[in-house]
């Protein structure tokens, strides 16, 4: 036997083994796993009313053009929400924002972007408004708060500050720091 034939045979066997190995270890197309949709459901142009678990009275009303309930954590993302939260007399505060978020149990609401809060408009109620960029609301505690700058207005009075807490049921408010007040009395008639 010639050494060339032995070397050629060895190279042929090596080529066959490496070809077989490459064929066997080739990447197989991965079966695409159907991803679960990120939303359980989507609501369009809706009104949702939540009742208090103890009294059965209206606790929160939500109106919005669109909401997505997240499958993974059961939270809800909302586009331009309008929340109505009743005070002690059952008159609703109106809270608006660019976006909203609701916790799985509905015990926390987060409003983000151009947040506007307006007190009920009824005889005997001093009209009050506040404006801020973020607001966290805890409906069961009737509490709304933010750490951001807030402008609050009432007839003849404008207050600004950083940090804000409000009991929406009793209409008690606190500006927490850097408070500035501007009093504008109405002209005597």
TrEMBL record:
It holds the Pfam family LptC. One of its GO terms (cellular component) is outer membrane-bounded periplasmic space. Signal peptide: none annotated. It is found in: Cell inner membrane. Keywords: Cell inner membrane, Cell membrane, Membrane, Transmembrane, Transmembrane helix. Its main location: membrane. It is a single-pass membrane protein. GO terms for molecular function: glycolipid transfer activity; lipopolysaccharide transmembrane transporter activity. One of its GO terms (biological process) is Gram-negative-bacterium-type cell outer membrane assembly. HAMAP family: LPS_assembly_LptC. Involved in the assembly of lipopolysaccharide (LPS). Required for the translocation of LPS from the inner membrane to the outer membrane. Facilitates the transfer of LPS from the inner membrane to the periplasmic protein LptA. Could be a docking site for LptA. Component of the lipopolysaccharide transport and assembly complex. Interacts with LptA and the LptBFG transporter complex. Belongs to the LptC family. This is Lipopolysaccharide export system protein LptC.
């Amino acid at each position: 036997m010639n050494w060339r034939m032995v070397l050629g045979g060895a190279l042929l066997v090596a080529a066959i083994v490496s070809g077989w190995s490459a064929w066997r270890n080739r990447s197989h197309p991965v079966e695409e796993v159907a991803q679960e949709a990120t939303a359980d459901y989507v609501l369009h142009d809706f009104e949702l009313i939540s009742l208090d678990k103890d009294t059965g009275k209206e606790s929160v009303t939500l109106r919005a053009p669109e909401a997505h309930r997240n499958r993974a954590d059961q939270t809800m993302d909302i586009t331009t929400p309008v929340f109505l939260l009743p005070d002690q007399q059952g008159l609703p505060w109106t809270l608006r924002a660019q976006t909203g978020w609701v916790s799985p149990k509905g015990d926390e609401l987060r409003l983000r972007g151009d947040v506007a809060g307006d007190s009920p408009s009824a005889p005997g109620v001093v009209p009050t408004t506040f404006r801020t960029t973020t607001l966290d609301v805890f409906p069961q505690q009737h509490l709304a708060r933010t750490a951001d700058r807030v402008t609050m207005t009432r007839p003849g009075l404008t207050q600004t500050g950083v940090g804000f807490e409000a009991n929406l049921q009793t209409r008690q408010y606190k500006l927490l720091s850097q408070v500035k007040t501007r009093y504008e009395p109405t002209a005597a008639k």
